[in-house]
């Protein structure tokens, strides 16, 4: 995946998988995450971690599947505290998670359609950095923007 060590630009090998029940205790006891992720366990919750550090979760996202609307809704996303802001050690965590959601939206036949409802202060970030567009109260990426995100953040997964 497209994780990069911030100080050296070195690519890092990582993976994204579903959170399992035993992970919630680890997440809750971690100082890295602010949200109560157990609340999200009715949704599909995914974690991203480095292959050589499986117990160190770098980021999380909660997805809701709306097959009748041909879309996946990104309900919640959080990058661990040590990888936020100017002092972060690893870059592209959120981008990889979002691109993974886009990939799932293609796999499920939704043509890459992924929506989210951002906090007001994050709207421009999602629009400018990830290519989301406004759809009423929601932001979403469609087929072309999803392909671009997958190619940007998940490209080395195919190599």
Structural class: alpha+beta
Examine the coordinates and then state which fold CATH places here, giving the name of the CATH topology: Aminopeptidase
Spatial strand order of the main sheet: 3-4-5-6-8-10-9
Please outline the major beta sheet.
7 strands, mixed
Flag low-confidence runs: none
Distance between the termini: 10 Å
Q: Mean pLDDT, as a whole number?
A: 93
CATH superfamily placement: Gcn5-related N-acetyltransferase (GNAT)
Radius of gyration over C-alpha positions, nearest whole angstrom: 15 Å
CATH class: Alpha Beta
User: Please, how many helices?
Assistant: 4
Describe, in plain words, how this protein is organized in 3D.
By secondary structure, the protein is α+β, with helices and mostly antiparallel strands. The chain has a single domain (3-157), classed as 3-Layer(aba) Sandwich (Aminopeptidase), CATH 3.40.630. The protein has helices at 21-29, 93-107, 123-130, 143-153, and strands at 3-5, 11-12, 14-18, 44-50, 57-66, 71-79, 90-91, 114-116, 133-135, 138-141. A hairpin with a 6-residue loop joins strand 4 (44-50) and strand 5.
Write the SSE topology:
Elements: E1 3-5, E2 11-12, E3 14-18, H1 21-29, E4 44-50, E5 57-66, E6 71-79, E7 90-91, H2 93-107, E8 114-116, H3 123-130, E9 133-135, E10 138-141, H4 143-153
Parallel strand pairs: 6-8
Antiparallel strand pairs: 1-2, 1-7, 3-4, 4-5, 5-6, 8-10, 9-10
Helix pairs in contact: 2-4
Task: Describe the structure using short key phrases.
three-stranded antiparallel beta sheet; 159 residues; alpha+beta; Aminopeptidase; globular; seven-stranded mixed beta sheet
């Amino acid at each position: 995946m497209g994780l990069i060590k911030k100080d050296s630009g070195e690519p890092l090998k990582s993976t994204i998988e579903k959170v399992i029940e035993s992970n919630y205790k680890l997440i809750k006891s971690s100082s890295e995450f602010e949200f109560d992720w157990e609340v999200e366990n009715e949704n599909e919750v995914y974690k991203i971690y480095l292959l050589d550090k499986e117990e160190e979760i770098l980021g999380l996202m909660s997805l809701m599947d709306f097959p009748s609307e041909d879309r996946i809704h990104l309900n919640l996303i959080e990058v661990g505290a040590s990888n936020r802001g100017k002092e972060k050690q690893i870059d592209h965590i959120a981008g990889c998670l979002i691109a993974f959601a886009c990939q799932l939206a293609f796999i499920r036949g939704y043509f890459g359609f992924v929506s989210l409802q951002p906090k007001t202060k994050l709207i421009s970030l999602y629009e400018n950095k990830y290519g989301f567009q406004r759809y009423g109260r929601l932001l979403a990426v469609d087929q072309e923007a999803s392909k671009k995100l997958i190619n940007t953040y998940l490209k080395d997964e195919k190599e």
